[in-house]
Design brief:
This protein is an alpha+beta fold and 240 residues long. The protein has two domains: 143 residues, no CATH class; 74 residues, no CATH class. The protein has a three-stranded antiparallel β-sheet with strand order 3-4-5. Strands 1-2 form a two-stranded antiparallel sheet. A hairpin with a 2-residue loop joins strand 1 and strand 2. The longest helix has 24 residues. The radius of gyration is 21 Å and the shape is elongated.
Length: 240
Amino acid sequence: MAGADRMTIEQVVREVLLEDHADVVRESVRWVVQQLMESEVSELVGAELGERRPDDRATHRNGYRSRRWDTRAGEIELQIPKLRQGSYFPSFLQPRKRSEQALVAVVQQAYVCGVSTRRVDQLVESLGLRVSRSEVSRICAGLDEQVEAFRTRPLEGRYPYLFVDAKVEKVRDGGRVARKCVVIAHAVHETGRREIIGLDVGEAETEAFWREFLRSLVKRRPGRCAAGDLRRPSRPEDRA
């Protein structure tokens, strides 16, 4: 992939995620935003959601109000917490604030390269939200579970077409920037649906790395035990 006009694999994955898995990205963005709002309101109230504390708290929760939010991943239905005394309106919904782009970018990055506590922390700071570091860590853990569920989901049905590609990219690893191999498996399901079925980052594009990556795809195929089964039509003996 040479040339400045060519997209990196990470950029390609981001585009495909929005095109073919916008529902996945959209749900993760909605979840992250909801957690950020709940955390910020807990700071304002002086108590967590459902927590019973003395009446010296600043105010109390008073249900939710719905609001639609248009993002590049699609429309999201937000549930904004209401307060009994005073009011709350999340800063990221303020006009002219480019929060939507930053939020979607962080979630996309999580699906490509894993969840980064540092990036989420920077996001919270840029949005001007009052969220503690411990809450940021909790949100990162929850987002990491969603990413892991997507990346290890069972590969049901047949995939007649499978495309794999790799590129050496500079990635952050343990506080330093290192050159690593980013590999993506992009497939077409028998229903015609395009999917990203595999993503991984390795030290180098070696035979051992490729073998382990392909085996990880095979393991996600129920009842399959050979790499060729990723694209081979099912046979009567396979179903026996």
